[in-house]
Amino acid sequence: MGASDLTRASAGLRVDTTGCSVDDLVYCGAVQVAADSSEPWDGIVERAVAEGWLGVEALSGLPGSVADVTRANASAYGQSVSDAVVSVRTWDRSVDRQRTFAAVECDFGPGSSRFTEQLADGSLRYDLREVTLLLKQGDLTTPVRDDALVARLGVASGDRVPLDLVRRAVLGG
């Protein structure tokens, strides 16, 4: 991916909207977002909702950094961070080198991932450096099926709603 393929880059965040380019491995029409692990998670979600990138809108308001929510595979209202992760770039302290994991290698489970592994001294084995997300584009969510979110929104299970409506409902607004 060349520099000309990147759009709307900012400190700690690279956004690639060229998902339909020839020989690109990104799903057509998707947006690939590479976030520095120290970026505040909710800032990523806020940007995603504002730009029309779906897949993380129900994860609004989660505290911590991109590393924190990825390490814990945070979830809320039927969405999990792991649903959007493509890869995680780390520093592996046990072998003192960089290592990148594809989503399938992250061992995501409810509230956990391989990135919670500890060394003998109790420190975390992996220092997360960058998390790459793949987000669909659109104005409406996927069908809302989480009972609590359905109730907050006042919609029927399976309805699709505007992204910003979900964010406001999750944040209590």
Automatic annotation (TrEMBL):
Under the heading PANTHER family, the entry gives: UDP-N-ACETYLENOLPYRUVOYLGLUCOSAMINE REDUCTASE (PTHR21071)
InterPro entries, alphabetically?
FAD-bd_PCMH-like_sf, FAD-bd_PCMH_sub2, MurB
State the name under which the record lists this protein.
UDP-N-acetylmuramate dehydrogenase
